[in-house]
Amino acid sequence: MADDIETTIVTMVFDATDADRLLEVLAKYVVLTRGHPGCRNVDLTRSFTKADRYVLIQKWDSPDAQAAHFDSTDMIEMAQACNGILVSPPAIDLLEGISVHDLA
Question: Within a domain: residue 1?
């Protein structure tokens, strides 16, 4: 893999007990997160197959940028605001982006 390009991808899956409140929390979080150093993009998506499931997909310049964000006030505030409106804690996965150019 190319040493000069690192992409860190995070998925966060939320199953809501109160979808309206969760959407308010996640919408604010997405807007704030897009302004964090190293954030390439954040998308808020809704599942077609599971009612009240929402998924955040984040892309970061590096693992360090992503880790710094997870320690940020915005991340902590979002996590605290989810108390009482989720079926269970969100499922979080950390992925490494793979460039198809590196595989050729």
Answer: no
16-25 pLDDT, tens digit per residue, is 999 999 999 9
Global pTM?
0.87
Owning domain of residue 89: 8-99
CATH number at residue 55: 3.30.70.100
Which string of b and e fits 18-53 if b means at least 16 CB within 10 Å?
ebeebbebbeebbebbeebebbeebebeeeeeeeeb
In the chain, the number of structural domains is: 1
First to last CA, the chain: 10
Check residues 102 and 47 and name the one with the higher pLDDT: 47
